[in-house]
Design a protein that fits this description.
Length: 286
C-alpha cells in the first residue's frame, strides 16, 4: 500500500536507486492470503509495501498487514532478506526485500480502495493464479509452488500482435512469459521525433529499454521473435540486438524463433550470442 511518509532510499549493488520493501506470507489452514491490487504491480500478491523512514522492516510488515487486510500480526519471523535487481516500481529500478512469515489474528477485510480482490488460496490454487512476478519468485523459492520456466519475448514492436499471440501459446505450454509494454507499439511510427533529441518520446523509450532489461534479468531465457521485416527474413533490429547482448552478458538462454538474418552488418555478433535456432519449433525450448 502507498504511504504518504517518505520511503527509505538506498543504492543497489549495481549503483541503481533502491527502495526497501517488506512483505508477509500469511497461511491459515493450508491456505495463503492474497490480494489483487488496483494499481501496479498487477497480479495476485501477498501483503507488502515500502519501508518508510523511521520504520524497521518488522514495523512495516505489521503496518501493511493492518492497512491491507485489517488483520493484527501476532508474530513474524524473517524468511529472506534479499536484493532484487529486476523488481522495480515507478520510482525505483530495484528493491531490497524483507520477507516475513506472519501469524495473524482476526478476520481479513478487503480494502476496496487498494484491492480488486482478496482471498485465501491453497497451494494448488496458487499454481493457477496469475501471480505478480515478485510473489511468484517468493512462492517458488519457498517451495510452495513449482518452479516454472520464465521467458521474456524480444523483437521489433512491429511484431507486437505476434508477441501477444506467442505469449498465450507459451503460457498454455506452462511457461511464465513477459513482453514489452503496449504503449511502445503506438510510438513506433512517430517519425517527427527523429528531428528532435529533446522530444519526450526519447525519455519514454529510455525508460522502456531499462524496464525491458529488468524483464530479461527476471527471466531464465529470451525468445527473439524475428519475423520478416523490411524485406529481411529473420529481422533483428538495433534495440533487439541490445537486448540479446544484455541477455548474453547475464548468461541467459537465447532462442531465435527463425534463422539468423543474412543481410545485416552485425550477423557475426548474432552468431556470437550463441542462440538456439528454433525454426518455428517451440518444443525445443527447455
Amino acid at each position: 500500500m502507498e504511504n504518504k511518509e517518505k520511503k527509505i532510499i538506498g543504492k543497489a549493488s549495481n549503483g541503481q536507486l533502491l527502495h526497501f520493501s517488506a512483505g508477509a506470507v500469511i497461511e491459515r489452514g493450508g491456505k495463503y492470503l492474497m490480494i489483487d491490487r488496483v494499481s501496479p504491480p498487477f497480479g495476485y500478491a501477498g501483503l507488502a509495501g515500502h519501508i518508510d523512514e523511521g520504520e524497521s522492516p518488522e514495523q512495516t510488515v505489521i503496518r501493511e498487514v493492518s492497512e491491507e487486510s485489517g488483520l493484527k500480526v501476532a508474530k513474524c519471523e524473517l524468511l529472506f532478506e534479499e536484493e532484487i535487481l529486476w523488481n522495480y516500481c515507478k520510482s525505483a529500478p530495484a528493491h531490497k526485500w524483507y520477507l516475513f512469515e506472519c501469524e495473524v489474528e482476526g478476520d481479513a477485510t478487503q480494502n476496496k480502495e487498494e484491492e480488486k480482490a482478496m482471498g485465501w488460496y491453497t497451494k494448488e490454487e496458487l499454481e493457477r493464479l496469475p501471480l505478480e512476478p515478485m510473489w511468484r519468485y517468493w512462492f517458488e523459492k519457498l517451495g510452495i509452488i513449482s518452479t516454472r520456466h520464465k521467458i521474456t519475448l524480444c523483437g521489433s514492436m512491429k511484431f507486437f500482435d505476434e508477441m501477444e499471440q506467442m505469449k498465450k501459446v507459451l503460457e498454455e505450454k506452462g511457461f511464465v512469459v513477459d513482453m514489452p509494454e503496449r504503449f511502445l507499439a503506438k510510438q513506433e511510427d512517430d517519425n517527427d521525433a527523429y528531428k528532435d533529441l529533446n522530444n519526450p518520446i526519447w525519455q519514454l523509450k529510455h525508460n522502456a529499454i531499462q524496464a525491458h532489461f529488468r524483464k530479461i534479468l527476471w527471466a531464465d531465457a529470451i525468445l527473439v521473435l524475428n519475423y520478416e521485416k523490411n524485406d529481411i527474413a529473420g529481422y533483428v533490429g538495433g534495440n533487439t540486438l541490445m537486448e540479446i547482448g544484455f541477455a548474453a552478458w547475464h548468461s541467459k538462454k537465447i532462442y531465435f524463433l527463425n534463422d539468423i538474418p543474412e543481410n545485416v552488418s552485425y550477423r557475426e555478433e548474432l552468431f556470437a550470442s550463441k542462440p538456439t535456432i528454433l525454426n518455428g519449433d517451440l518444443s525445443n525450448i527447455n
